[in-house]
Design brief:
- The chain is built from six helices and two strands, in the order αααααββα.
- It has a two-stranded antiparallel sheet with strand order 1-2.
- The two termini are 14 Å apart.
Length: 166
């Protein structure tokens, strides 16, 4: 593989050796932000005692794990490590799966308080939390795909440089 010094692609690849992958890192931070908006919307709801169940406890734990893993992955993809990019892709799948668990159950549920039936989650809130989770997933997917692509490109470029030296 020949790399010309005046080729824009070669310049871009060589620059990657010294610059961080800020796009993937920032997209991961944005995914975390959308997740925060999701859980603030969910946990500020207090309709009867419906939210006092094991599912909410599991959701809280998952939110903490998601944010910690995502932050760790943002630092990994910043340094072009492909394994962290794959972790972000898995986190994106997890965010999509979450849409069908807590928000859908809360939307279908109702609580009776003083002989009056209230929906646990109304359509505007359902729409908002689905948009937040979907946006979080899309950010994870974008960060993961770009991270995998860039890490492979940099690895191939570094290998071509090693061939020239040897």
């Amino acid at each position: 593989m020949t790399n010309r010094l005046d080729d824009p692609k070669t310049i871009r690849l060589d620059r990657m050796r010294y610059a961080k992958n800020t796009f993937s890192s920032r997209m991961t931070y944005l995914a975390i932000l959308f997740n925060v908006l999701y859980f603030v919307s969910i946990y500020e709801s207090d309709v009867g005692s419906w939210y006092y169940q094991i599912l909410i406890g599991a959701s809280i734990v998952y939110n903490l794990v998601f944010m910690l893993v995502s932050f760790l992955a943002s630092e990994g993809v910043k340094n072009y490590k492909a394994s962290y990019a794959w972790l972000l892709l898995a986190a994106g799948v997890g965010q999509i799966v979450r849409i069908f668990i807590l928000p859908m159950q809360a939307y279908r549920a109702s609580v009776t308080i003083s002989k009056v039936t209230y929906p646990v989650m109304k359509m505007p809130q359902l729409t908002f939390v689905i948009i937040c989770l979907a946006a979080s997933a899309l950010c994870c997917f974008a960060a993961g795909i770009v991270g995998v692509y860039r890490s492979r490109a940099l690895r191939a470029y570094n290998a071509s440089l090693d061939e020239k030296v040897a």
